[in-house]
Amino acid sequence: MDLNLAWVFIAALVGGLFAAVLGYAGSGAEGWNAKKFLTSVVKAFVAAAVFATGYELVGSTIGIKDLLLAFLGGVSVDTVLHRAAKVIQPPPVA
What we know:
The radius of gyration is 15 Å and the shape is elongated. It has helices at residues 3-25, 34-58, 64-88. It is mainly alpha-helical. Helix content is 78%, strand content 0%. The chain has 3 helices and no strands.
């Protein structure tokens, strides 16, 4: 793996982890839920792999803008998948 692709991977991974930490901090009284945090970490790794693979396939040069986009992509993948899981999940039966 090229060093530039490693930076793209790291930027997207840090973005996903940033979203996971913000999700934990915003959970309020819910407390620590390791399962939710670990699923966010897995989503961050998947997002990072997808972004690095995409840049590998395009084969362009990587600059600061690309790293920022990878970071924001990591954040958005975690956020979008979290929202989608809430929509797909059926409501609890009382």
